[in-house]
Specification:
The complex is a heterodimer of chains A (311) and B (391). With 311 residues, chain A is α/β, with parallel strands linked by helices. In chain A, 35% of the residues lie in helices and 14% in strands. Chain A has an eight-stranded mixed β-sheet with strand order 2-1-3-4-6-5-7-8, with helices on both faces. In chain A, helix 2 links the parallel strand 1 and strand 2. Chain A starts with 36 loop residues before the first helix and ends with a helix. Chain B is globular and about 70 Å long. Classes of the chains: A alpha/beta (311), B alpha/beta (391). Strand 2 of chain A pairs parallel with strand 9 of chain B, so a sheet runs across the interface.
Chain lengths: 311, 391
């Protein structure tokens, strides 16, 4: 067991990556793929929240890449749990801590998109409706990654997965808005290519009592089919093209965050083609598919606009 | 000690209170509902200092119990039938995580067709999940067994979860006199839960990580060993409870007039109470008959069954459950226990009382008439018999 004792990390808002703790709570030698976006997200989340954090992890890439018994890449405690059960198990940990008077520990469910938007949505909804005091992070690689990249409700329109070999015909499920509809104090989206934004969102989430939901886009080289050094670039393109947007909904108030805040004007957004052409999973898109994807992005941004300006 | 007159479900709730459960996570299902309603009353009126998580499903109930138990809480839940079936995955998770969760299972038949009445098809379907399984015959036993179950499950030699099963409506909604011990005596018998492995930021451990084939079997062996340890501890704890509170339930098996019996009626739950009355009636008619009630189905009381079967020539086994493609589970386990014993009696199985159908004293007497015929003939003509089927 590797332990880091007595590390105190700054919990204030960070402005540059240099302000993040130097301590590593996610150890090298973990079993993630080269260029894994999820591993970047874990590392950042731990730096954001520090040692006094409990991870509750359902079946997902993180259950695999944390390494196998008797090793663990986590310096923070981790409870692995069944696929659909992260939010419910986290509710149990929270209740036990409340009963025992443990006050200074953050309980964080850390789940993939399959475990969140599909099989785990019921227990997440239940925990949120009960106002469970925890942070739920969905790291979204847009498919069932560790089982070989099958379609999830979070896979985008047109993307090839191993169960949609000719491309998915439905659009991505909008779970951040579903969570916002639960009237929880804090909902946010993030992307590993914008680490400071993610870290600050986690730290802000920690200041609220109740359920906090953050969905972070984590590009996946083997699933999305791009070369492993381009993970950060791929996340950046997702945001720059507007297919993924960074926003937060704080006490019901929607706000686009930079750089997405500057992309309300459609002309500021890079063409969708820049994003889809960079990835093998979109290799078979027809011109009409690309048009449909564009239509969806535009419509999604109309929604953002309405919420941003409260109209 | 206070005597109250209450239903089985209310008594289960009172046992949860007496055990000072820290966290309860539950979802309502007939006929369990009044257990969770009672607990809600106890928590909201301040009589039970616990966190009560009103989850959105039984799957989440067990997941929350697991989280709470890992978080250091004594946990309790209750369910029935489809609720238990929905929990199935998490039942494995709880036992393999070695968590001493105690759950009341108010036995109810599985659908379809919808049926809310008693049989053991719900809990016996969970036989291989690693959970210790108790089956109660009256409301007093429900209270006592829940307290005993915590004592057993939290023993460092066990650290496994337990189901305390009792039949829906027959016990759950029937009032009976029950003696409730003083809280300080329960506290004395059942000290505070002291979890050996905790999810704790000051001692960061990864729980439930991947285990490769080189290690998996060892973890499963530890579970096997834990239930073997439970086998030894169950009668000890029941005796200790008896010494303290003046009530005990026979450890693994409750025997009734078995000493000189040539034919023993073997059953579980409330059918066993009817069997006792049948024994009294048949004894008056000169039959040397006895009854035994299997109180613990896992670990299965192999030695006790072998012992009572030693002098008997016939076992009349009544199952309130059917394993399709085979026979009643109690029947199967009993025969397995006696296999290779040269002194094994004849064994005949009856399927009875499914979906809450009444099994009366008269029915049991009729079954034994059949088995006495087998005994005279020296062989069991029909090994499995569905009792009382409509023609």
């Amino acid at each position: 067991m590797v332990r880091i004792k007595g590390v105190k990390s700054s919990m204030t808002t960070a402005t540059t990556i240099k302000e993040l703790p130097k301590e590593e709570y996610w150890f090298p030698g973990n079993a993630s793929c080269a260029g894994c976006g999820a591993a970047i997200a874990i590392r950042l989340a731990q730096k954001a929240l520090g040692q006094r954090t409990v991870f509750v992890v359902p079946a997902c890439c993180t259950s695999v890449i944390q390494s196998a018994f008797p090793f663990s890449a986590f310096a923070t405690p981790c409870l692995n749990i069944a696929f659909e059960a992260a939010a419910a198990a986290a509710s149990g940990v929270v209740a036990a801590y409340e009963k025992r008077g443990v006050k200074d520990v953050t309980v964080m469910a850390w789940a993939g998109d399959g475990g969140t938007v599909d099989i785990g949505l019921q227990s997440l909804s239940g925990a949120a409706e009960r106002g469970t005091n925890f942070i739920y992070v969905c790291y979204d690689n847009e498919a069932y990654g560790n089982t070989g990249f099958q379609r999830s409700g979070s896979s985008p329109f047109g993307s090839q997965t191993t169960t949609t070999p000719t491309g998915k015909r439905e659009h991505k499920k909008n779970v951040p808005m579903i969570m916002a509809a639960h009237d929880i104090p804090y909902v946010a989206t993030a992307c590993i290519s914008y680490p400071i934004d993610f870290v600050n969102k986690l730290r802000k989430a920690k200041t609220f009592t109740g359920t906090k939901y953050i969905q972070i886009l984590t590009p996946c080289p083997p699933g999305w089919r791009y070369s492993t050094e381009k993970t950060v670039e791929m996340g950046r393109l997702a945001v720059q093209t507007g297919i993924w947007a960074l926003y937060e909904i704080e006490q019901g108030k929607f706000r686009l965050n930079p750089p997405s805040a500057g992309l309300i004007d459609k002309s500021k957004r890079k063409p969708i083609e820049d994003y889809v052409k960079a990835q093998g999973r979109f290799g078979q898109l027809s011109p009409s598919d690309v048009a449909e994807l564009k239509r969806w992005v535009d419509e999604t941004w109309e929604n953002y606009k309405r919420q941003q300006f409260n109209v | 000690m206070q005597t109250i007159i209450e239903t089985g479900n209310k008594v289960a709730g009172l046992a949860c209170k007496a055990a000072r459960a820290d966290v309860i996570a539950a979802y309502p299902i007939t006929p369990q509902t009044t257990v969770v309603e009672q607990i809600a009353d106890l928590v909201e009126s301040g009589q039970l200092d616990a966190k009560y998580i009103r989850v959105e499903s039984e799957h989440s109930a067990m997941a929350a119990c697991i989280g709470a138990a890992v978080g250091g809480a004594r946990t309790f839940t209750a369910t029935s039938s489809h609720g238990l079936a929905l929990m199935h995955e998490m039942l494995h998770w709880a036992s393999a995580s070695r968590l001493p969760i105690v759950m009341a299972v108010v036995n109810r038949a599985m659908g379809p067709s919808w049926n809310i009445w008693a049989d053991f098809s719900d809990s016996l379907s969970q036989r291989d999940t690693g959970w210790i399984q108790f089956y109660c015959a009256d409301n007093q036993e429900i209270f006592d067994t829940i307290i005993q179950a915590y004592k057993l499950c939290e023993d460092s030699r066990v650290f496994m979860p337990a189901m305390v099963c009792f039949e829906g409506f027959i016990l759950s909604h029937t009032s009976m006199p029950v003696q409730i011990p003083e809280q300080k005596d329960v506290d004395d018998f059942l000290p505070k839960y002291n979890p050996p492995w905790l999810i704790d930021v000051d001692n960061p451990v990864t729980h439930g990580a991947i285990v490769y084939p080189e290690w998996y079997m060892e973890f499963r062996y530890f579970m096997y060993e834990a239930l073997e340890n439970a086998r030894k501890l169950i009668p000890e704890i029941d005796r200790e409870y008896g010494k303290k509170f003046g009530i005990s339930h026979g450890g693994h098996i409750e025997e009734y007039r078995c000493e000189d019996a040539d034919n023993i009626i073997l059953s579980m739950g409330t059918i066993s109470s009817e069997a006792k009355l049948a024994v009294d009636n048949l004894r008056k008619q000169g039959q040397k008959i006895g009854a035994a009630r299997v109180r613990v189905f896992r670990p299965f009381p192999k030695d006790e069954i072998a012992r009572i079967a030693k002098n008997a020539q016939m076992l009349t086994v009544i199952d309130r459950q059917i394993s399709y493609g085979m026979e009643g589970p109690l029947h199967t386990e009993t025969k397995a226990t006696l296999y290779s014993r040269t002194d094994s009696p004849l064994v005949a199985g009856f399927i009875a009382g499914l979906g809450g159908r009444d099994v009366t004293v008269h029915d049991i007497e009729t079954m034994t008439k059949k088995t006495y015929q087998y005994l005279q003939a020296g062989k069991v003509e029909q090994e499995v018999q569905w009792y009382g089927l409509r023609e």
